[in-house]
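2024-03-11 09:14:02 DEBUG pipeline.ingest accepted 1 chain
2024-03-11 09:14:02 DEBUG pipeline.ingest length=433
2024-03-11 09:14:03 DEBUG pipeline.predict start
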Amino acid sequence: MALGNIIGSGIFLASGMVISIAGAWAPLAYLFGGLIMMMEVAFLIEMSIIDPVPGAFKVHAQEVFGEWWGFVIGWMFWTSGILGMASEVTACAIFARLWLPEIPLWLFSLFFAFVITLINLNDLKGLSKFELVLAVTKVIALVFFVIAGMIATLGFPVGETVHNFTPFAEALQSPVQGIFGLLASMLLILFAYTGTGIIGIAATETERAAEVVPPATRIVTISIVFLYTLSAFFIVVLLPSSALDVNTSPFVTLFRLANIPYSGDVVNFILLTATLSALNSQVYSSSRMLFSLARNGQAPKITAYQNQKGVPVSAVWLSGSFLLFTALLSYVLPETIFIYTVSASGFLALVNWMSVSATHYFYRKKIQSIAPEKITYKAPFYPYLSWICFFMILLTVLSAALYPDQLPGLYAGGIILFIIGTAYFLLPKGEKR
C-alpha cells in the first residue's frame, strides 16, 4: 500500500517539471527529499506502534496539541489527499489521452474516479492484493528504466539514446543558481514522497505491526529513494533539454526518442497503471482519515458507518465523489490543473509533515515519562532529528515561491488551511456536533 501511495505522478509526470526547474540538480533534490521522507516515516512508525489507533498521527497530534489541532490536521490530511487524488486522476487522464487525444480530459477523469471508488469498497486484504499487482508493475518499470539508463550511460546502445554529461558540468560551474533551482523544486519533490501517511494509517490494520512494519517500511523507503534519484539522473543524462515537455512524461519521451518499436505506448500503459495505483491508495488513506474524524465527532456521523467487512463505505463514497469535482476542474483548467493541485496538495501535506515532526518530539517525551515500556521501536537521534526535519520542511515551504507557477496552489493551500482552522470554532461542540 505504501509503494502504491508514494510512487505515482510525482515521479512519472512531475519529474519533467522538476528537471525543468532544477536541471542537473534534480537527482540531488530527489535524494534530499528522500532523506526528509525517511525521517517522517521513522516518526510515524514509532508513534503508530505505541498507539495503533484509527487516524494514527491525527490522534497523536490531538493528544499533544489538543482537539483543535487534531481537527485541523485530520481535515487537512483529508483535503490534501483529495487534492492529491485530483492530481493523480488528472495524470491518468493525461496518459490515456495520449492514445485518444480527441476525448476531453474531464471525461477520462470522470471515468477513472468512478472505477477507483468502486475498487475501494473491498476490504484491506482484497484491496492490498489488487494494489500489489499495480505496485509491482511500476516498481519493475522503474527498475527496468534504471537498468536501461545504466547500460546507455556506459556507452552501450539502447535504441538511439545518447548520453550527455554536459548539464552536470554546467551545474558545477554555476552552483548558486543550481541551489536556487533545487530549492524551488522541493515542493514538487516532496509531493512525490507525500504518500507516507498511509504507513501510519495502515499499521493500525496490520497484524503484529511492531514486527512487520519497521522492516517493511525500511525496504520501501530505501527502494523508493534509490529508484527516484537514479531515474532523475538518467533522465538528465539521456533526455535532450529541447525534448523536455512538462506536460508529457519524460519516461515516455525518452523511449519514443530511442525509436524502439511500441516502447512509448508500452511505457505509457505502465505509467497509467502506476498512477492508478497511487490514486487507489490515496482513496484508501483519505477515506480512513475521514472515518477517524467521524469516530471522534469531527465529521458527519454517516461517514463512521462500516459494512460487515469493516470497510467505511460512506467515507469511501464521500471521498471518491469529490473526485467528480476534478472533472469540472479538468474542464475549466485543462492545461494548469496538474501543477495547481500538486502544489496545493503538497503545501497541505508538508504542513502535516511539520506537525508529525513536532508531535513526535512531544509524544516521545510524554510516553517516556508515563509508559516507557511501550516504546518498542525508536526513531534515531532523538530529539535532534525531530526539529532538523521540521525546519528542513519549513525551508521547503518558504522556497516554493521561487517557482511562480506554484503560487496559485500555495495560496489555495493557505486559504484551505485557514478555512479548516476557523471552521472548528464555528461548528457546534459536544453532543450537538
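2024-03-11 09:14:41 DEBUG pipeline.report Residues 174 and 242 are 20 Å apart (CA to CA).
2024-03-11 09:14:41 DEBUG pipeline.predict end
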